[in-house]
Design a protein that fits this description.
Length: 344
């Protein structure tokens, strides 16, 4: 039986990856941060099947300990301060976790079990101000946020340990992937949660930032399969994982509202743009400058050809299904919230 260690197991990807590895018969270990109230995040439903180890990416000793306990054959480094906007507010913490944290994990592996296979959660944010369309493994990087810069360090240190110490270390350059488990500050979940609340009459409108920003959105469940595939290859390498489709935030909003039977009509431009419910004329989307970023990544579009060819990775959940799954899930959650509030 193979042993896997997942950092960031309580997050979106960590939870889907843990499910996948359990299905495949792995002994799954996950690192968790100590909090004043114990919180299993997205893995509460499988907590009895996972071995949890208290550790932190900024504490090398704790990661060495996690390696000693787990004796992991495969290490998936998914832990990160992953919200781009917060990286301007906490640039040092972001660098400690997302950059130096990767070296900590690699050193822990080197100390305890250097033959372990290592996956680093790299990101399309490294392309930032994109230098070509679409982006591939060969596209030059130009990060646009402290998060992107920190992740670029993580990416290169992974490559460097592969070349310096012959470690089986891979980076997945994953484009945006979302799900029913996505944190509510990310734009997709913020939208689907708001759509459910507006539809069910407990919220009037949603305030968003840059509506023209374009992202290549897939589903997390498809993307964790690619992580696993990378660690099963003969040789370690880096791969872009994406859908090769890009859409604006505005299109995401329209698709989500359409699914609950609301047609949006757009009026005005920039910060004055509003989305109107065509049926009753009420404003359901506003733009608020507060949600704009100091430097923006205007467009991301990834070409996953190398992953298709070498990993035989296939995306199973198309864009519309991603949106409808998220909206349906939020409709159920909000309906349940309303039911409980009415019982009080
Ligand atoms: P997420 O939901 O925000 O999960 C992040 C995880 O990291 C959480 O489990 C969090 O634990 C943990 N963490 C944060 N700081 C830590 C620390 N100091 N020590 C230990 N654990 C810590 O993120 P995600 O969407 O699943 O993304 C997974 C990884 O892929 C991240 O590295 C992200 O940067 C990268 N990525 C994501 C995407 C995407 O579109 N989702 C695309 C490309 C790359 P707590 O529960 O304690 O907060
Ligand atoms: N969060 C948020 N909130 N974003 C908004 C809003 C809003 O109200 N309005 C517009 N946006 C725009 C952002 O400016 C950005 O251009 C786009 O929507 C997506 O924002 P996020 O959903 O926060 O994701 P991200 O693209 O910045 O980062 C995610 O994807 C990266 C991969 O490209 C995160 O998951 C990162 O961890 C990941 O590396």
């Amino acid at each position: 039986m193979k042993h896997a260690l997942i950092t960031g197991i309580t997050g979106q990807d960590g939870s889907y990856l843990a499910e996948l590895l359990l299905e495949k018969g792995y002994e799954v270990y996950g690192i968790m941060r100590r909090k004043s109230v114990v919180d299993y995040g997205n893995v509460g439903h499988i907590k009895d099947k996972v071995h949890f180890i208290y550790a932190d990416m900024t504490d090398l000793v704790s990661l060495v300990n996690a390696m000693r306990i787990s004796q992991a054959d495969e290490v998936y480094n998914l832990a990160a301060q992953s919200f781009v906007a917060t990286s301007w507010e906490q640039p040092i913490a972001t660098a400690d976790i997302d950059a130096i944290g990767v070296t900590n994990m690699l050193e822990a592996i080197r100390t305890v079990k250097p033959e372990s296979h290592f996956y680093q959660a790299s990101t399309s944010e490294m392309f930032g101000l994109v230098q070509e369309m679409p982006q591939t493994e060969k596209t030059p990087f130009y990060p646009r946020s402290p998060y992107g810069v920190a992740k670029l360090y993580g990416h290169w240190i992974t490559k460097n340990y592969r070349e310096s110490y012959d470690m089986f270390a891979c980076s997945g350059i994953l484009f945006n992937h979302e799900s029913e488990r996505r944190g509510k500050e990310f734009v997709t979940r913020k939208i689907t949660d708001a759509v459910a609340r507006i539809k069910l009459g407990v919220q009037d409108y949603v305030e968003l930032g840059n509506m023209d920003s374009k992202r290549d959105w897939g589903h997390s469940k498809d993307y964790v399969r690619a992580m696993w595939l990378m660690l099963q290859q003969e040789k370690p390498d880096d791969y872009v994982i994406a859908t090769n489709e890009t859409r604006t935030v505005r299109e995401f909003v329209e698709t989500a509202f359409t699914h609950v039977g609301i047609k949006v009509e757009w009026r005005g431009y920039g910060v004055d743009e509003v989305g109107i419910n065509k049926e009753n004329g009420s404003i359901i989307v506003k733009v608020n400058k507060q949600f704009f970023r100091p430097a923006e990544v205007d467009v991301l579009l990834g070409n996953p050809k190398k992953a298709d060819t070498e990993l035989k990775w296939v995306r199973e959940i198309p864009f519309r299904e991603l949106v409808t799954r998220m909206v349906d899930n939020d409709m159920s959650l909000v309906a349940e919230e309303i039911k409980i509030a009415n019982l009080k």
